[in-house]
């Protein structure tokens, strides 16, 4: 198996890196300015990270207009094994343009073309009297996003459903957003080109943020192969409530499973741009939870779910 090269340095995380000893997440502050806010700031919650005003601060990252492979990412190998506590690596310092190897002029042009550039003006944020904290108190839990990423066949949907069932059994409200399912509806206009995947993940990030604001444990299960897109979703949730779960299963294991026969089709050249075969997967550098094979054996679905539940318990998401 070739080693996947995820050479490009990530952008610094806007929310800061959690450590294993981080206390329970702060209570999310409500969207509650008394004055209406202008449209350009309305897309982010009342987080301190929204103060910058630059396109990046506002989550207006340019959509990718270059082939991902040109950014030094390589398909065809399983993601490298990462130590759990590798979050200190999240200190890139380079701009997103440098990260993907395009000129600033190119970045600006891409920004103009981006679907995340606001197209309307004279719109104002409207606050409602019942806020996130009220909903969380009602539900006796805290809203968050459990973002499951990994190769096709790594077990994302299995973990998502097992976790969803376990939370339900415990009386906690959760909702699963699954890649295959959303591509039947909200995202049915999108394919698997890099810019389509980026738009897929951008939309899901926004939807997941709404679910978290509703007070739910939102379980998002997407290949989400590009680090930058996942980091953009993380940046939408500024209070440690974005929990990235990396299903670090080898390409060999995923390909041996191949429940839908897609790897076989990709190897036969009948599917182009298949993640892990001829499209890259960029392993997380700073995930909260990593689940991997031990001696070639994958933990059971209930063990995987238990690992996530323990994290949620420890961080206080399953309590008022
Ligand atoms: N080219 C290509 N590459 C990867 N996956 C492909 C492709 N074509 C179809 N599929 C099927 O689409 C599912 C992945 O959808 P996602 O929305 O999670 O993909 S992405 O996050 O936008 O990359 C994925 O589902 P999972 O196997 O559950 O991961 C596949 O069934
Ligand atoms: N922890 C596990 N142990 C054994 N088999 C698993 C495990 N998780 C998933 N599988 C199996 O692997 C295949 C792919 O799982 P799936 O959840 O569909 O992956 P993904 O959503 O990442 O494509 C399925 O046949 C599933 O039953």
How would you describe this structure in keywords?
single chain; 320 residues; alpha/beta; Rossmann fold; five-stranded parallel beta sheet; two-stranded parallel sheet; 11 helices; 7 strands; 10% strand; globular; binds 3'-phosphate-adenosine-5'-phosphate sulfate; binds adenosine-5'-diphosphate; APS_kinase_dom; ATP-binding; transferase
Main pleated-sheet profile = 5 strands, parallel
Q: What share of residues is helical?
A: 25-40%
Return the average pLDDT rounded to an integer.
Answer: 74
The total number of structural domains is 1
- SSE topology string: EHEHHHEHEHHEHEHHEH
Fraction of residues in β-strands: 5-15%
- CATH fold node name: Rossmann fold
Summing up helix and strand content along with how strands pair, one would put the structural category as alpha/beta
- CATH superfamily, by name, is P-loop containing nucleotide triphosphate hydrolases
Which descriptor suits the 3D outline?
A: globular
The hetero compounds bound to this protein are:
3'-phosphate-adenosine-5'-phosphate sulfate, adenosine-5'-diphosphate
CATH architecture term: 3-Layer(aba) Sandwich
Broad CATH class: Alpha Beta
Low-pLDDT windows of residues: 1-113
GO molecular function, one term: ATP binding
Pfam families: APS_kinase (PF01583)
Catalytic activity: adenosine 5'-phosphosulfate + ATP = 3'-phosphoadenylyl sulfate + ADP + H(+)
Organism: Triticum aestivum
């Amino acid at each position: 198996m070739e080693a996947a090269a995820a050479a490009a340095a990530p952008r610094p995380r806007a929310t800061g890196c959690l450590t294993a000893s981080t206390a329970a997440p702060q209570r999310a502050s409500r969207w509650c300015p008394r004055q209406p806010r202008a449209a350009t700031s309305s897309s982010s919650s009342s987080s301190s990270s929204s103060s910058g005003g630059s396109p990046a601060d506002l989550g207006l990252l340019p959509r990718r207009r270059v082939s991902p492979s040109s950014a030094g990412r390589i398909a065809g190998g399983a993601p490298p094994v990462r130590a759990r506590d590798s979050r200190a690596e999240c200190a890139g310092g380079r701009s997103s343009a440098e990260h993907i190897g395009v000129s600033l002029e190119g970045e600006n042009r891409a920004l103009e073309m981006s679907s995340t550039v606001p197209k309307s003006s004279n719109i104002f944020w409207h606050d409602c009297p019942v806020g996130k904290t009220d909903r969380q108190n009602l539900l006796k839990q805290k809203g968050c996003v459990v973002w499951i990423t990994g190769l096709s066949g790594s077990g994302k949907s299995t973990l998502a459903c097992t976790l969803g069932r376990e939370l339900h059994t415990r009386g906690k409200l959760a909702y699963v957003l699954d890649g295959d399912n959303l591509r039947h509806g909200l995202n049915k206009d999108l394919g698997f080109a890099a810019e389509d995947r980026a738009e897929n993940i951008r939309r899901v990030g926004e939807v997941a943020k709404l679910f978290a604001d509703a007070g739910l444990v939102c379980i998002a299960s997407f290949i989400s192969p590009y680090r930058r897109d996942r980091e953009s979703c993380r940046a939408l949730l500024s209070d440690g409530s974005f929990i990235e779960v990396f299903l670090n299963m080898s390409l060999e294991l995923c390909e041996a499973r191949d429940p839908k026969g897609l790897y076989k089709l990709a190897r036969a050249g009948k599917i182009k741009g298949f993640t892990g075969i001829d499209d890259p997967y960029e392993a997380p550098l700073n995930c909260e939870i990593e689940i991997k094979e031990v001696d070639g054996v994958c933990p059971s679905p209930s063990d995987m779910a238990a690992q996530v539940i323990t994290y949620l318990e420890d961080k206080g998401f399953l309590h008022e």
